[in-house]
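chain below, 421 aa
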Amino acid sequence: MNRPKISFPLLSGLICFVLFSTVHAFAADPLAKITKFDGEVTLVTGTKIVIVEAMDHVLYEGDKVQTKQGTAEVTFTDGAILTLSPFSSTQIQQKEEETGFWIFKTKQVVRRITCFVGKLKFISGGAIKMNYLQTPTAVAGVRGSETEIGYDAAKAANYLNLVSGDIAKQYGEFITGFFENPGAQSAQKSKVFNAIEKAVEETKKAEEKPDVIKQAKAEESVLEAIKQAAEEMTKNPDPEVAKEAAAVLEAVTKQIEEKKAEISEMEATSTTEEETSEEEETSTEEETSEEEETSTEEETSEEKETSTEEETTSEEESTTEPVTTTSPETTTTTTTTTTTTTTTTIPRNENNCRDGLDNDQDGATDCSDSDCSDDASCQTTTIESVTTTTEETTTTEEDTTTAEETTTTEAATTTTEEYQQ
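prediction:
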């Protein structure tokens, strides 16, 4: 019995189809996780910035990891380990790629680790046999190895130290052998490192004070970091790397333009709302001010009217006082306006030599009247006393009209009583 034969190309294509389907079915699965870290470690995942705060933080296809004054260890699902030195920035990728040529092309899962700046140490795992360690300007395909790779952005220099294993493929030039970590000075010259740092700052601002515009600006800054990384890799001598970077650059540039347009629209809307709010506040303040002025004017007017009424009443009370003088012979009530007029019966003699009054109306007062020549009070001391009394009476008259009227009334009453006696 003849069995159908399957040609090698067909069998190879069938295997690749199954493998391709399997890989993409699990494209969203984690590739690795952070198993150790110290200091500040930052992740760029999707369009977000994440600060690593605990171990076992998962990493996905295309994620970027960056350290400052610290280190990080990444462990892949197949056991491979990647260690980041201080001030280093990397990107991890794991996907299917074609190898071979013409009808002999096949696809296999490969891992690419990019060093944008700093120093990385990589120890390969068990499942993935093809690992590419690359910088913006060089690529080394290594198998079964322990390798250190570095990039000095200040010198644009590529470093490779193959501890074990072998190099299967290489693009660009490396300085081989042991090398020191380029460090902070090199990181300051790295466009990718600085773009990620800026994205971290914008993200922190958005988290401190939640705001849709700040959040949109933070997302834009992350897209700018992704764009910068893509631009760096378009210079790579590996055509596949450069081609993929160009595609990412085109896509992310469109996203940035859309995000900028979105932010501009938000800012315009926000400005309009602020202007409207300011106008409403100004209008409210003006109305409140007018109301306060009107209220103040009304209160002032009322106070003035009240004050005028009180003053008028006070004047009327102080200038118009009824004075009543009672005597056995005459009882007269006189209303005085400015001075008090008292009607009394005039005695024949100066019968009170100490009251300061001309009681008998003969032009002489008290001791100056001849009627008081024999009065004991009209001696030298008595005269001084009378004079003092007179001065006090005069002072009282000058102080208040009311007191004067009262004194006059009392004096008149006393005169009348003495006269009756």
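The mean pLDDT is 77. The longest strand covers residues 106-123.
thats it, cya
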